[in-house]
Amino acid sequence: MPLLGFGTWQIKGDDAVRATSVALEAGYRHLDTATVYGNEGEVGRALAESGVPREEVFVTTKCPPSRTGHELDTLKESLDLLQTDHVNLWLIHWPGDGSSNTDIWRAFGEAREMGLAREIGVSNFDAALLDEVSEATGLTPAVNQIEWSPFLYDAATVAEHRERDIVLEGYSALRGGTLDHPTILEIAEREDRTAAQVIIRWHLQHGFVVIPKSVHPERIRSNAHVAGFTLGDDDMAALDALGKG
């Protein structure tokens, strides 16, 4: 699973096709979409027309808990829209009520056994919910996608995921004022990088998956160009300190 992915939340229609195409041209090999985003068809079209071999791209989509009882039909609809016979990762988009999480998770296990999803995971789950579905089914989520940035950094949350061997994937890393914070701006200026590049680099050096999104070609390309520098230990500690500890 590439640590750097391209997020497509709130990108619709032709914008979704164009942005995804630019991302693939810029070197992204991880695309993140969801049933409720309403853009799986556009993401699938961009991938199909890109000339990039399907096996080189890690594709994630998500199932809302409202589809309880219709999970496999939902996934098959996603696959049709994405123009592929499998996704690399299928997530429960957010927790459902009562026992629905376990019921959905069992269906996710079936999808993996059928080869429709290479791996399965969840989104917006806390540690108690991660344990609930794992213990009830014997299947541990491969990934938990949660809102994450230096502002939300929490060592306990990181430890909870690592203890369970669950990959922490962050979304909305470039929202909530992170691009304007003085600490981040100071590091960016010193490194001759953008604030977004600093934040993305922080994720990568921690081993967190990050999926920045944009509809602007220059930003999409810039966000992908994070391999040419490394944040020092002091800068990483300063960024960590912006969070909960």
TrEMBL record:
Give the NADP-dependent oxidoreductase domain ranges: 4-242
Q: Does the keyword Oxidoreductase apply?
A: yes
Task: Report the SUPFAM superfamilies cross-referenced here.
Answer: NAD(P)-linked oxidoreductase (SSF51430)
What GO molecular functions are on record for this protein?
oxidoreductase activity, acting on the CH-OH group of donors, NAD or NADP as acceptor
The UniProt keyword set, sorted, is: NADP, Oxidoreductase
Q: Does the keyword Oxidoreductase apply?
A: yes
Name the site position(s) for Lowers pKa of active site Tyr.
K62
**Which residues of the sequence carry a binding annotation for substrate?**
H93
Identify the CDD domains for this entry: AKR_AKR1-5-like
Name used for this protein in its record: Aldo/keto reductase
| Naturally occurring in which organism (per UniProt) | Nocardioides islandensis
